[in-house]
Amino acid sequence: MTVKNHETKEQYTGWCPNEHAMKAQPCAKMPDTPPGVTADPPAPATGSLRGEDVHYRHTQVGKIQIWATVAVALVILGSIIVMGGFWIGIFIVALLGICLVLFGSLTVSVEKDFIDIRFGVVGIIKKRIPLGTIVSVQEVKNPWIYGWGIRWTPEGPLYNVSGVDGVRLDLDNGKMIRIGTDEPQALIKAIRDATFITN
Asked: What distance in Å separates the CA atoms of residue 87 and residue 71, rounded to the nearest whole number?
């Protein structure tokens, strides 16, 4: 076998006949494509996403919940001092504190593939909405009777921590989701920037 044949075989198979027998230098890495053949360019991204990792992130604090929880805790502590009932009062205050940690704030992130909704500091209670399922987004006003936290409305679930401003998402399965936010226009812009939605 000639050197030329060895070179050709090495080029196309990555095998070098003398590498082990002669303790020669390792053969060159096999090229990704044969000589004279141009590699195809990467295919353009498809779908509604543009590929950025995080478009938007905002945390809204439930100030009313915080002040109300603090006020109730002070009343309970005052009652403990005056009337006793130490362990019951401590239990109620601890329960209020847990609720505040779980629902005291709402963080909304528009990321590469989805909208991430997380309540509280630790984010145990959360919801993810794939961006590809959203067909339209618009600003809405949530009636005060809808309340805060996770609520069911005539249009679908509401995730809200404070106020009446929000954004409604229409999904491709006909369902709707409302997200409470104190900056609805910024959230709408982030969703539209992350997708090809124009309405």
From this structure: 19
Overall pTM surpassing 0.90 (yes/no): no
| Contact present, 56 and 195 (Cβ < 8 Å) | no
Neighbours of 186 (CB within 10 A): 15
Determine the average pLDDT of the residues in 150-154. 92
What DSSP string runs through 31-44?
A: PSS-TT-PPPPPPP
**Cα 127–57–186 angle (5° rounding)?**
105
- Which pLDDT does position 183 carry in this prediction? 95
Specify the pLDDT at position 75.
87
Coil, helix or strand for 165?
strand
| Cα 175 to Cα 93, 101, 136, distances in angstroms | 38, 30, 11
Give the full edge-to-edge strand order of the sheet including 149-153.
Answer: 134-141, 165-171, 176-180, 156-160, 149-153
Question: How would you class 158 by CB atoms within 10 Å of its CB: exposed for 0-12, middle for 13-18, buried for 19 or more?
Answer: buried
118: tokens are 């997380």
Q: State the residue for tokens 């601890």.
A: 94
Terminal Cα-to-Cα distance of the chain (whole angstroms): 69
Tell me how far the alpha carbon of residue 126 is from its chain's centroid.
Answer: 9
Using the CB atoms, write b or e for 66-92: b if 16+ within 10 Å.
Answer: eeebeeebeebeeebeeeeeeeebeeb
